[in-house]
Design goal:
heterodimer, A: about 110 residues, mainly beta, 5-stranded antiparallel sheet, about 0% helix, B: mainly beta, 4-stranded antiparallel sheet, about 50% strand
Chain lengths: ~110, ~120
């Protein structure tokens, strides 16, 4: 059984705050780590696919880092906006089976 | 690109009836699609992997006779919940793998179907 943990479970911040959350995954048999953003009533949207230890990827105000040796990834949002409100999912891939998802971090940004 | 649609978005049915959910890749071909289920406050749990032209691969604990999967074309997979019961009420979501298996397994998701069985 692969355990993918995300913390915190939920987060409320004010507009303009920067925030970050964590995805922990098994450090063995690592192939890729995915981040998705999931707004209510919409499809989960792929943010990043990360494969190399030390990787850092950026998309606008959102960035992510990856540490495969210790089994964690951080997602950062700089200057949060109300439209950033969503559930952020990470998913771990070993290269052999389908993705294993964490339960997500639900972000609410107050105007 | 890489849009996946799912229909219906919401369905309410009586206990004992069957419900079919469709998952379509609109602008790409998908030889592999995945079906997930999500219970409140839990992760997306993989139910089965749907392969075009062959039988689906079910995860442990998922009854293949209850959750029938058909992947008859490169753009359509269907999940039929047969003889639905209230405990089958859940959120069902599909995803499609663009390209061949291998690589980082980047999947594109549909918006999901909320099933309520009365």
């Amino acid at each position: 059984i692969l355990n993918v943990e995300q913390s915190p479970q939920s987060l409320h911040v004010q507009e303009g705050d920067s925030t970050n959350f964590t995805c922990s995954f098994p450090s063995s048999n690592f192939y890729a780590l995915h981040w998705y953003r999931w707004e209510t009533a919409k499809s989960p949207e792929a943010l990043f696919v990360m494969t190399l230890n030390g990787d850092e990827k950026k998309k606008g105000r959102i960035s992510a880092t990856l540490n495969t040796k210790e089994g964690y990834s951080y997602l950062y949002i700089k200057g949060s906006q109300p439209e950033d409100s969503a559930t952020y999912l990470c998913a771990y891939y070993t290269g052999r089976r389908a993705l294993t998802f964490g339960s997500g971090t639900r972000l609410q940004v107050q105007p | 690109g890489a849009v996946v649609s799912q229909h219906p978005s919401r369905v309410i049915c009586k206990s004992g009836t069957s419900v079919k959910i469709e998952c379509r890749s609109l602008d790409f071909q998908a030889t592999t699609m995945f079906w997930y289920r999500q219970f409140p406050k839990q992760s997306l749990m993989l139910m089965a992997t749907s392969n075009e032209g062959s039988k689906a691969t079910y995860e442990q604990g998922v009854e293949k006779d209850k959750f029938l999967i058909n992947h008859a074309s490169l753009t359509l997979s269907t999940l039929t919940v047969t003889s639905a019961h209230p405990e089958d009420s859940s959120f069902y979501i599909c995803s499609a793998l663009r390209g061949v298996s291998g690589g980082a397994n980047e999947q594109f998701f549909g918006p999901g179907t909320r099933l309520t069985v009365l």
